[in-house]
Amino acid sequence: MNLTLGTLLPTNESPSLPAIQTATRQPVTLTVNGVKTELQLAPWTSLLDALREYMHLTGTKKGCDHGQCGACTVLVNNKRINACLTLAIMQEDTQITTIEGLSSLDQTSSSSKLHPLQRAFIDHDAFQCGYCTPGQICSAVGLLNEGHAKTADDVRELMSGNICRCGAYPGIVAAITSVMDSQPTTV
Amino acid sequence: MTQYTGRPLNRVDGVDKVTGKANYAAEFDVQGLLYGYIVNSTITKGKIRQIHTDDARRVEGIVSIFTHENRPKLAWFDLSYKDQDAPPGSPFRPLRDAQIQFNGQPIALVVAETFELARYAATLIRVDYEQETHQTDLQANRHKARKPAVGMATLFKPPPPDPRGNFEEAFRNAPVQVASEYVHGSEHHNPMELFASTVVYEKGRYKSGERYTIYDKTQGVTNSILYVSQVFNIPFKDIRVISPYVGGGFGSALRPQHQLFLAVLAARELKRSVRVTLTRQQMFTLGYRPATVQTVALGASSDGTMTAMYHDGVAVTSQFEDYTEVVTTWGGLLYPAEHVKFDQKIISLDVATPMDMRAPGGVTGVTALECAVDELAYKLGMDPLELRLRNYTERNMNNDLTYSSKELRECFRRGAERFGWAKRNPEPRSMRKEHTLVGWGMATGIWDAFHAPARAEAVLMVNGKLRVSSATADIGTGTYTIMTQIAADTLGIPMEDVLFKLGDTDLPVAPIAGGSWTAATVGSAVKAACEAVGEKLFKLARKLPNSPFAKVRFSDVLFAEKAIRLKKDPAIAIPLQTLIDANGGAAVRAISTSVPNLLKQRKYARNTHSAVFVEVEVDEDFGTVRVTRAVTSVAAGRILNPKTARSQIIGGMVWGISKALEEESVMDHQFGRIMNHSLAEYHVPVNADIHELDVIFVEEHDDIVNPLGVKGVGEIGIVGMPAAIANAVFHATGIRVRTLPITLDKLLTAATTEVSTS
C-alpha cells in the first residue's frame, strides 16, 4: 500500500488511535472499447468512477451517481446500463462500450467515421450543453439493439431513463427515429 | 459566398460533444490529484459546538480535513467575497465560523487520495450542534415582508416604478374586475453536470512561486478569477480559470459556488492539486428560484380596455443577502393601463440565498400576470387573444419609451394560425378526447434585450486561419457556433478556417453569460475585433504596388471568399493570404472593446416578445396533465442561427412545462430541509413528457439594440409557457389552479371541492 501524505502529516487529534484500513486496492481487469486494461481498484469503486477517474474515459458522465439521470449510460455486452449502479469489479468478464468506443474516430480523422447516431445527434441538434449526450447516445444504441421501439412514442418512452435538462428531447427523438428509419433491419 | 449568419448550421462543437471529447470541469486529468468531499450541516440554524474529525482522520489515505477550526486566515471584508452577480448583503463564506445559517451549509471538507476514501471518511465526521429555532416557511412569515436593500445588482434589477394614476379608484370603478393570489414553490436549477472545480497547483515554474490553474463550472471565468484572487489574496497573474464546456447553467453557475472556494483553499494549504465535486444532493444546497406569493388585480371597461392594474409580490431570501428579481412590473411593459401600482418585497428566512434561474423574475411575474389576463378574458366573455390585442402597447409604460422593435402582433397572428386558435371553443370543458379533457390556452412572454461591454480578439494567422477569442461561456447556448459564424462573415473566411475560443481568463475579458445577453454582448465584440483586423488588412492592401484599393475608403470594400474586394465590383480583389504575406509574414491581430451605445439605446425600450399557444390533455379520473402540443412564436431581433436558437426556445418551453406541471423543491419546514433532493424525486420532464413543440421566429430589424440587431433567446422561451399551460388547464377542466406546479392532487382536490359545493 502506498504511503500517503495523510499518514505522514501530524494530526492534532488522537495520535495514539490506530489507522482505519479500508478496502484495499486489488487488480481488476476491464475490457473497455475492445481494450483490456488492468487497474488497481478498491472493490467499492463503481464502474462509472473506474472509467472516469482511473481510466480517464470521461465521456461517460456523472449526473447523480444514483441511477436516476442516465448520464452514465454505457453498453455492457451491448446492453445499456447505468455505470454508477454497478461496481467495476463485477464487470471483469464483460465487454464494455463507452461513447469513446462508438465511433472509429481517431485524433486526426474527420467526422465522417462517426456512428450514425452521433451524426444524427449533430444534424438534429439533439443536445445543447452536451453533458447528457454520451449517455443519451449509448442509451439509443442500446434501444436500437433491443429492437422494441417502433414509433416515435416508443422512443420517447424507452429513452425516458435519460434526463436532458436542456430539454433537447424533440431533437433526440428526431435523431433516433431518423437512424431507425434508415436502418430498418436493426429495428 | 452565402452569409453564415441567419442559417441553421450545426454546432461547431458538435463532434466533441457526441464523441465524449468535450471536457467539463471535473474531467481534466491531473497528476497526483487529491479529492475533496464536502460535509454539510444537518441543522438549519444554530452553531457547531464541536466537530469530531478524529475517526475520519484515522482513515488511511486521508490527507486533511478542513473545518472552521483550522481554516487559514482569508480576506476579512465582505467586499472581497462579492462576485459579479452578488445581491446586496454579506455573501456566504464557507467555513467562516461555527454559525449555521441554512440547512446543508458546507461545514467541512475531507481531502483524500481517492474519491471513495474522501466520501467514506466524510461519513465518520460527527458534529455536536447548538440548535436554534429556524424559520423557512414563506406563508408563515408573510408579516415579515420588507423592501429589499439597494446595491450594485439593483442596476439590472430596478425596484418597481412609482404608481401612476389612481389604481384604487380606477379599480373600484371598473365594471369588470379580477383579483387573485398566485403561489409558486422554489425550484433548483439542477444542470446535468455536477458542480466541480479542479485546481491544478504548480510550484517553482514561475517567478512568484505558485500557480493555480482552475477548471471551474462557471458561466463566467472572469467572475471566478476575481473571487479567488480577492478571497485568497492571490495575484491575478498566478491564477488562470478555464471552462471550455459547461454542462448546463441556467443561472446556477453565475456565482462562484462552494466547491470553488473549498478546492482552492485545500490546494493552497496542501500545495497539491485538488478536485471538489458536489453530489446531486449537495446541488440542493446552492441557490434556487425563490418561492413567491403574488397578487394581481386587473380592472377593465366592458369593451375589454384595461384601466387598472395592480401587481405585488413577496419572495424568499436568506438572512444574509437581499436577493431580488424583477417580478411585478412586467404588466407595465405589456399593457397600457393608466392606473397602475406595483410593489415588491422580500422575506428573510433561514435558507441559502436564492439565485438567478432562467428568466429570473420574468417567468414568475409574467406567469401570474398572464393567468390574471386569462381570468379577465373569461370574466369579460372575450377571447384571450382578442383581449391582448385590444390592450396592445407600442410603448413601455413604465419608462414611457417606444420599443426599438416589437413584432408581438405578428407573433400572435402567426402563432394563432399555426396552432389553429380560431377553431377554439371558449367554453371550459367543451373539448374532449375519450376520457381526457382537452384545453387550449395562450399567453404572452417578454424578456429584456440586454447589451453589456465585452472584449474580443481576432488574429488572422499566417496560415490564413482566423482565431477569435473572448472569455465568455457556452453553456449549451451555441456561443461557439454563432461567434464562429459572425467572425467568418465579417472577414469572408470559411467557417472551417475559423477557431473561436472561450472560457479562459487568458482571453479578453467578457461578462458572465446570463440574461440572454451573450449573443449581443460578445457577438458585438467579435464583430468589432474582426472589423479592426479588416481595417488593418485594408491598410496593407492599399500599400501594395498598383493596388486597386489605393484610392478607395474602408467603407468601399468588403470581405468575401478569403479576399478583400471592392463593393461595387467584387471581382476586383486581393486574397487575404497576399495581405498576410505583405505583413512580413506576421499574423494580423486586433483586440476590440464593444461598448453599448447608451445615447442611442436610452431613448428606446428594448425587449424580446413571444406568443405561446398550448394544448393540454387532462385525464378526468386521475388529474394528470400532458402538454400534447405547443407553438411559441418569438420576436427576438435577428436570429443568427435558427437551429441553435430553436433549440434554446424548445429548451425554454420544456422548462415552462416543468415549472407549470412538475418541478418544485419541497421543504420540510420542521427540519428546514429539502425533502426531494434527488433527480428521482425532484421532477423534471423526461422524454415521455415532451410532445409536439413548434417554434416560429418573427424576425425584427433593429438598429438600436446593438450592432448585430440580435436580442438573445435564452430566456424568452420559458416566460410565457407556464401561464399558457395553466390557462389551457382551466379551459380543459374549468379549474383555476393558481399554485404551481399544477400536480394531480391540486386538480383532484379542486374538482372534489367544486362538486361538494355545487
Would you identify the CATH architecture of the largest domain in chain B?
2-Layer Sandwich
The Rg value of chain A, from CA coordinates, equals 20 Å
In terms of quaternary structure, the protein is: heterodimer
The fourth-level CATH homologous superfamily of the largest domain in chain B is Aldehyde oxidase/xanthine dehydrogenase, molybdopterin binding domain
Secondary structure: helix percent of chain B: 25-40%
Which fold name fills CATH's third level, the topology of the largest domain in chain B? Aldehyde Oxidoreductase, domain 4
Number of strands of chain A: 5
Helix content of chain A: 25-40%
Organism (chain A): Spirosoma arboris
Keywords (chain A): 2Fe-2S, Iron, Iron-sulfur, Metal-binding, Oxidoreductase
Domain 2Fe-2S ferredoxin-type (chain A): 26-102
GO molecular function (chain A): 2 iron, 2 sulfur cluster binding; metal ion binding; oxidoreductase activity, acting on the aldehyde or oxo group of donors
Structure description:
The complex is a heterodimer of chains A (187) and B (758). By secondary structure, chain A is of the alpha+beta class. Chain A has a single domain (26-182), classed as Ubiquitin-like (UB roll) (Roll), CATH 3.10.20.30. Helix content of chain A is 29%, strand content 13%. Chain A contains six helices and five strands; from the N terminus they run αββαβββαααα. Chain A has a five-stranded mixed beta sheet with strand order 2-1-5-3-4, sandwiched between helices. The longest helix of chain A has 14 residues, at 133-146. The N and C termini of chain A lie far apart (50 Å). By secondary structure, chain B is of the alpha+beta class. Chain B has three domains: 34-133 and 191-279, Aldehyde Oxidoreductase, domain 3; 142-188 and 288-450 and 603-757, Aldehyde oxidase/xanthine dehydrogenase, molybdopterin binding domain (Aldehyde Oxidoreductase, domain 4, 2-Layer Sandwich), CATH 3.30.365; 452-595, Aldehyde oxidase/xanthine dehydrogenase, molybdopterin binding domain (Aldehyde Oxidoreductase, domain 4). Chain B is 26% helix and 25% strand. Chain B is built from 18 helices and 32 strands. Chain B has a seven-stranded mixed beta sheet, sandwiched between helices. Chain B has a five-stranded mixed beta sheet with strand order 14-13-12-7-32, sandwiched between helices. Chain B has a five-stranded mixed beta sheet with strand order 17-18-27-28-31, with helices on both faces. Chain B is globular and about 85 Å long. The chains are: A alpha+beta (187), B alpha+beta (758). Chain B: InterPro entries: Ald_Oxase/Xan_DH_a/b, Ald_Oxase/Xan_DH_a/b_sf, Ald_Oxase/xanthine_DH-like, AldOxase/xan_DH_MoCoBD1, AldOxase/xan_DH_MoCoBD2, AldOxase/xan_DH_Mopterin-bd_sf. Chain B: It holds the Pfam family MoCoBD_2. Chain B: This is Molybdopterin-dependent oxidoreductase. Chain B: GO terms for molecular function: iron ion binding; oxidoreductase activity. Chain B: Residues 19-133 form the Aldehyde oxidase/xanthine dehydrogenase a/b hammerhead domain.
